[in-house]
From TrEMBL:
This is MBL fold metallo-hydrolase. InterPro entries: Flavodoxin/NO_synth, Flavoprotein-like_sf, Metallo-B-lactamas, ODP_dom, RibonucZ/Hydroxyglut_hydro, Rubredoxin-O_OxRdtase. In the N-terminal section; belongs to the zinc metallo-hydrolase group 3 family. It holds the Pfam family ODP. Residues 252-391 form the Flavodoxin-like domain. SMART domains: Lactamase_B.
Amino acid sequence: MNAVKIKEDIFWVGVNDYQTTLFEGMWPIEQEGVSYNAYVINDEKVAIIDTVKSIKADEYIEKIKSIIGNKKVDYLIVNHMEPDHSSGIIELLAEYPDIKIVGNKKTFPIMNNFYQITENLHEVCEGDTLCLGKHTLQFFMTPMVHWPESMVTYDTIDKVLFSMDVFGSFKAPVGSIFDDENDLAAFEEPTRRYYACIVGKVAGQALKALNKLGGIEIGTICPSHGLIWRDNPKYILDMYVKMSSKVTDSGVVIAYGSMYGCTQKAAETLAIALKNEGVGEVKLYNVAKTDISFIISDIWKYKGLFLGAPSYYGQIFPKMANLLYKLSEIKVDNHKVGFFADYSWSGGADKNFSAFIECAKVDVIDEILMIKGTPDEQDVLALNTLAKEMAEAIK
C-alpha cells in the first residue's frame, strides 16, 4: 500500500511484513503477517511517529518522501524501543541526519544499547507537550506496557492517539488499514492472541494505562500493529479493557500432550463429558501439534482449563512444560483449572503440575487425576466426575 491519509495532516507510512515467520522469534505469523505502523504529521514542523522493522525501511522512507517531498524532518517520536518499531532508525537518520529524537528518560539508554545513538535527543515527561504548528502533541507514560520506556503520543487537535503496542494485533490489514473497511470479526482472534502472548504478562499495567487514557477524548486510535480505528475506537477499547481485566467467557480449553494416545483418550473423554454437562464451548488442543500461542489465546478467552500430560523420564512431557512456563508468566489465576496425568511405570508429570499450581496460584477444582496407561472404566468415571465439577465451577 502507498502512504494513507488519516487526517488532513496525518498519514500512515507503515508497512506489512509477510517475510517474518516468527514474531519475537516465537509466535507464528507466516499465514496472516503483521503490520508495523508508523505515522507522519506534516505540519509547519514535520514529526514522524516511530520507525519500522529495518527489513522494510526503504519502503517506509519512500512513503515519507511521498508525503513531505523535500521538506526536512524535525522530530522522530519514539513511543517504544522494541526493534520491530525502532530498527529502521539507522536508515531514517541516514536520510535525515538532523532529526531531533523525542523520547523519555528510559528510552535513550535502550537506544544507545541497540544503536549507539546519543545525540539530538529531546527528553519528555508525563503530560509534556510539543507544538508542531497547527498540531500539539502530548505525551503519556505507559511503563511496562510492555517495556519500561513505553509511552503514547496524543494529538490534542485531531484527538488522535498514537498508542504504541496498546490496541495492537497480529494480522496485516489487506487493502485498507481502517476498521470500517475491514471485517472486525477476522481480527478478533489475532488481537487476542497478540494480547495474550505479548501483553498478557503485564495485564495489570495495561489496565492502569487504559484507565489513564480513559481521561482523554479519543477520536482515532493509531496503534503500532493492526488496524487504525477511526470509525469505532470503542470496539478495540472495550476489547482491551475486557482482556486486561481478565474477564472470561463460559467455556473450557483442554490442552494435552500424548506420546502414544493414552492421554489423548483421556482428553477426548473429558471433552465429551463436558458437552454432556452442557458446556457450550470446548476447545481441544494437542500441545505437540498446535503452537502454544493459539492455545494461550483461547485460554485467555475461556474460564475453564484442563491440562493433561504423560510423564517423561520422571518429569513432564516437554511440550507441556513449555506451555506451563508461559502460563506461569501470564497467570491464570482467574480460571478454574483441572489436571490429569498419565504414566506407565512411575509418575513425574504430577510433580510438575503440583509445582505449577503452587507457583501460579491457580484455582484447582480437584486433585490431579492419575491414570496408568490406557484409561480404564474407573478412569472414565473419574474423568466424567472432573467434567461435572468443571461445568458447575464455570457456570
